[in-house]
Structure formats: C-alpha cells, structure tokens
Amino acid sequence: MKAIVIEQYGGKEQLVEKELETPAIKEDQVLVEMHATSINPIDWKVREGYMKDMLDWDFPIILGWDAAGVIAKVGSQVTNFQVGDRVFTRPATTPNGTYAEYVAVESHLVAHLPENVTFQEGAAAPLAGLTAWQCLFETAHVKQGDKVLIHAGSGGVGNYAIQLAKAAGAFVATTASWKNKELVEGLGADRFINYKEENFEEVLSDYDMVLDALGGAVQEKSFQVLKPGGHLVSITQQPSEELATKYNVEATAIFLNPKGEQLSQMADLMENGKVRSVVGHTFPFSQEGLREAHDLSETHHAKGKIVIEMK
Q1: Which fold has domain 2-125+277-309?
Q2: How far apart are CA 162 and CA 147, in angstroms?
Q3: Which of 42, 129, 229, 260 sits in a 20 to 30 Å window from 253, CA-based?
Q4: How far apart are CA 18 and CA 10, in angstroms?
Q5: What is the reported pLDDT for 282?
Q6: Do residues 166 and 172 lie in contact, with contact meaning Cβ atoms separated by under 8 Å?
Q7: What is the rounded (10 degree) CA torsion for 251, 256, 262, 267?
Q8: What integer pLDDT is reported at residue 117 of this predicted model?
Q9: One-character DSSP codes across 234-258
Q10: Rounded distance, CA 52 to CA 125, Å?
C-alpha cells in the first residue's frame, strides 16, 4: 500500500512516499480502507521530534490520527461492523498512523459514519471533536445553562467545542479574529470577542468553564473570568496550581483518550445537523500534498480543519 512516512525527525521535507505492506489485523480489529484523513498539530510536533521522549518509536513512522473510510476486513471477534460499512475513527496513538491507504484499528475505537456526512467531514472530526468532547463533558461536566468561554473558536477543536456546548444548552463566548466572526457565530457562538480589539478578561465574568487552546498569557488571564468552583481545561499546557488555588477553581490539562462510544454520540449529533465539520482546506494524498498541509497547519491560521483526500 502507499503511505507517506517519516524516516527521521525534521522539517516537512521528511514526509516521503513509500510502498509498505498492508497491515494485518488482529481478531479485535478492523481494516479501514482510507478515503480521507486530516491534519492536527500533533502530526507535525511528532515529525519535528518534539514528542520523541513521550512516543519512543522506531522509524519509519506513519503520522496521522484521524480516519474516515470503508471497512475492508473484520477480525474474528468483531460483531458490530461488517465489510463495506462507512466508518470514522481516532485510532490509538501508534507509529502506524493514517497517512496510508489502509489502517488497522481496534473496533471499540470505531464509529459508524452517518450517510449524510461525507468522508472528508468524517475525517475532520475524530481527534478535534473528541478533544472538545472530553474537555467539555468528561472534565468540566458542562450542562444546560452553563456559561462557557472557548478560545480560538475558529480552530479545529474550537469549531466542535462551540457546537457541542450549544447542543448541551450552554451559553458560549468565543475569541477569534474579526475575519472569523461570521464562522463562529454560524456555529452557535452567543458572544464573539475580537481578541485584537477586546480584552476578554475585562468583558467576561462568572463563567463556569474556559477551554484554553492557546496557553501562555491567555491561559493565565482566563482564570479571571471563572466563577468560584469553575473549570479551566487546557489542551496546550498544565495550568498553574497557584492560580487555581487563588481563584478557587479546578484547572487541568488533558491529553485525548480515543473512545469509539463518544464518537458514536458525536455521529448522532452530526446526523441530526447539530454538529458539522468545517473543512477549510483540502489537499491530495501525496508527498507534496502532505508537505503543504503541514506547512499550513504550522501557521496556526488555518480556518477549520485541514483534510487530506485519498479518494
């Protein structure tokens, strides 16, 4: 099968096309024939070697941890999927990722892709959508009537977080640039803050939860908008325990734990039109296409998700 791999750490030029064996599946796995994958910051962070201490892998490494496609084979113990099913998944974090024509995935990490959702939309959702889900519901327990601030609402995780929070009945504020005002309001944001012109910490208060996708000074200022007992959840860096104590709030960083059951719940919301993927950019499945996609992701200014089309 065709795959785009890295054989050493470094810049985008390390992404090279290679012919590899199609993966064999275990009894609890399915083989997904890939139709689309998407780019996330973890992809180029691994490529650059920033995560080599955490992920001690041998080369070659296939990057990519979003998948949408059709099941080509099922393991002997798999009962909830069959050959031909349309599916999407955030596979386990292994060196055998989704920049490939086929990927083997444990069936409990896979969800059925609704017929009214394209493979490109499906591929955009797993990693970013599940990250948003686990921030909002597993960690902060967001519920109807809560006030939620989502930083970087026009980004991948922010897109899904706005929609999921709204689907749960929360009031949603978000920071973004002026050019993305229409996008985030279209996703359901109740309060748009142009971060270049307004200081969110001066205009917001008494919030139940902040989803921090930026870290640094933004994270520190975010403590100021929370009510006592509120939650700050970061996807970038561990928040200050000292500030959490000062403001009497819960503060934590999360690293995604893939779960097919949560993805199935997201699929229901997607099927019913309550959550949609914003695919801002598409690239072909080629050495050059992946390099361009990584380039764009590294700017931090992609609108919505970056998708790679295999078929």
Answers
A1: Quinone Oxidoreductase; Chain A, domain 1 (3.90.180)
A2: 11
A3: 260
A4: 17
A5: 97
A6: yes
A7: 110
A8: 98
A9: ESSSPPPHHHHHHHT-EEEE-----
A10: 25
Decide: 91 and 98 in contact? Cβ < 8 Å.
yes
pLDDT for 311 equals 82
Spatial contact of 28 and 106, defined as CB atoms under 8 Å apart: yes
The tokens of 162 are what?
A: 């706005």
Where are the alpha helices (H) located in 77-124, listed in sequence order? 119-124
The pLDDT value recorded for residue 286 is: 98
Q: What is the pLDDT of residue 300?
A: 81
Q: Which amino acid is at 72?
A: A
Partners of residue 3 on adjacent β-strands: 18, 100
The predicted-structure confidence for 32-41, as pLDDT tens digits, reads as follows: 999 999 999 9
Q: Give the 3-state secondary structure of residue 286.
A: coil
Q: Is the pTM of this model over 0.85?
A: yes
Pairing of strands 67-74, 279-284: unpaired
Q: What is the topology classification, in CATH, of domain 128-253?
A: Quinone Oxidoreductase; Chain A, domain 1 (3.90.180)
Per-residue tokens: 23: 């993966």
How many Cα atoms within 13 Å fall on the side-chain side of residue 49? 7
Closest CA to 102 of 34, 159, 156, 182: 34
Length of the chain equals 311
What integer pLDDT is reported at residue 302 of this predicted model? 80
User: How distant, in Å, are the alpha carbons of 17, 99, 104, 268, 285 from that of 2?
Assistant: 7, 9, 14, 32, 10
Residues of the chain with pLDDT under 70: none
Q: What is the pLDDT of residue 247?
A: 97
Buried b (16+ CB within 10 A) or exposed e, 280-304: bbbbebebebbbbbbebbbeeebbb
The pLDDT of residue 301 is: 78
Domain with CATH 3.90.180.10 in the chain: 2-125+277-309, 128-253
Structure tokens at 127: 């990693």
